[in-house]
Amino acid sequence: MIGYVTLGTSDLERAARFYDAIAAEMGVGRMMEEPGVYIAWGALDGGAGIAATKPFDGQPASVGNGTMVALEARDEEQVARLHRIALDHGGSDEGAPGPRGEMFYAAYFRDPDGNKLNAFVMTGAPGE
Q1: What mean pLDDT is reported for the chain?
Q2: Residue 70, in any domain of the structure
């Protein structure tokens, strides 16, 4: 079970604007933060959270090739809203909302630091 995912950022204020908007759409807010160092979003008694932090070693933040964080949406409409919110808050498009196979509906985007995310919803059993 994943407790939380941490993504590096070179600009915590910019990351905060991006993730505050994403978190608000998902019905959560900031759950922990150390000003100027990190911010974590989610619910203390909820599922996995997400955090943005300046790298502890002081080196520039970078993205992992093949690394992606998946955000579980309520429905296809929320997938589309999350994609639009991401783009409106400095993110970039990596794949418009739409079906991906028989049971998966998703949209892909990157945050302003280049970290890849998706919003998804499972749409039913095969053949439905």
Answers
A1: 93
A2: yes
